[in-house]
Amino acid sequence: MDMSDVPRHHKPVKFSPEKFDAYEGGPDPARVSEAAHLAAHALVSRGRASDDPEISRRLIELTDEQGLEGIAEMWAEAPAVSLPGALWRLYALRASVRKDPVRMGRYFAAGRGTAQVSHVVAGVAEPPGAEEVTEMADTILSGAFNGEFDVALERFAAFCRVMALGRIRLADTGQLPVVVPGRPDAARAAGPGTVALTQRLERTAEELEAAARAWRHGHLD
Fold this sequence. Notes:
Elements: H1 29-49, H2 53-60, H3 69-75, H4 83-99, H5 101-111, H6 116-122, H7 130-146, H8 149-172, H9 184-190, H10 194-216
Helix pairs in contact: 2-7, 3-4, 4-7, 5-7, 5-8, 6-8, 7-8, 8-10
């Protein structure tokens, strides 16, 4: 997956198909949603209740072997401001970092000068590069289980904002092609969805910040 593209899931939501075989018409959306929320709460509860670093490592690396497909089936269609929706975004962002850390480091380096507050919140070591942003992604996700969950959400939100600003800055300086309206040739040169990807990062940041506020008020279910 392209580093700049936050993973998105477009297939119908499924969860334990055999469990729903008895229900005429396919999976019951209400039951699918309930299962997604129960799984999310169980995962977070297990991580936060344990001091075992091995459990923490396994939770962080949950998608490394099987990819995002497993949790996408449960969580990708969950509301953004919900526990499964927030976890989906955390894991999807980490997967994006690991897919193309060099590009992610480049975007972050370009954006950090115009987003000092987000830079501090995101907490990437200096100078930011492929190794630093990869380590940051693991550290933030670890914080969701071993630290303050809302802080983990806000740190990844900050990371998204710095990334978006980095893309804009590189485009402004000619280092990242931009889509020119009415110019199909320019659009092809820029790659599909250049503007859309930047907007998606900004939207994801807003969603994570909203989820953090809901968690602090005890409303992130």
